[in-house]
Design brief:
206 residues, eight-stranded mixed sheet, three-stranded antiparallel sheet, M1 Pyruvate Kinase, Domain 3, 13 strands, alpha+beta, globular, 6 helices
Length: 206
């Protein structure tokens, strides 16, 4: 796998028929090296800090195969950063990652902590009020990560995967559990044994 795009978002006002908000979801690929800190990429804006960002959701990843699938479904090419991800990676199918997996990207070590749950901001970004349902049905959510080791990353860097040695729960399984109104106790227990992002853990515990 390789890092094919590094994407940075600036603060922007997003207006739709139903609401307006400041957002950092509009990401633009950059060609210069980027520094990843424990709170994410230097220069990247996280406007909604209640639901995004923080130590456990510092970096968002999306895969080139997922983009290829969406391009077929939508009938047009999507540029890296369209889904608001910080890092776009070749050969990465996000749903198959496991919570706790570690990705070495350039100098940085990232640990998968959660699936991305779509919201109205994503639908507005895509110009489709029904896109949240479409994104859910696709089960290609991308993955949030915490930063185990800060460092500099560059387009073209190799990306290696270290599988999590503990309880095996895929990003897809975590994604489905979020939408299950009556998840089985065993499913919840398994998820809570993984190094989940704290927002996801709090929701499951509740």
């Amino acid at each position: 796998m390789r890092l094919i795009s590094v994407n940075i978002g600036q603060r922007r006002l997003l207006r739709t028929a139903g609401f307006s908000e400041e957002t950092g979801i509009f990401k633009t690929p950059i060609s210069t090296p980027a520094e990843i800190t424990p709170l994410g990429l230097v220069g990247d804006v996280v406007a909604d800090q209640e639901h995004h960002g923080g130590l456990d959701q510092a970096v968002y990843l999306y895969g080139e195969p997922d983009y290829a699938w969406w391009s077929v479904q939508l009938g047009y090419e999507l540029a890296p950063g369209t889904f608001g991800e910080n890092l776009t990676i070749s050969g990465l199918e996000s749903a198959a990652l496991h919570i706790g997996d570690i990705l070495q990207v350039g100098e940085a070590r990232l640990q998968v902590t959660a699936a991305r749950i779509p919201c109205a901001t994503l639908a507005a970004r895509m110009g489709d009020p029904g896109f949240v349902k479409r994104f859910r049905a696709a089960e290609r959510p991308g993955a949030y990560c915490r930063v185990l080791q800060p460092g500099v990353v560059r387009v073209g860097d190799a990306v290696t995967l270290e599988p999590y040695p503990g309880v095996a729960v895929t990003v897809a399984e975590m994604f489905r559990a979020f939408y299950n109104p009556r998840p089985e106790a065993e499913s919840i227990r398994r998820l809570l044994e993984t190094p989940l992002a704290e927002r996801a853990r709090a929701a499951l515990e509740e």
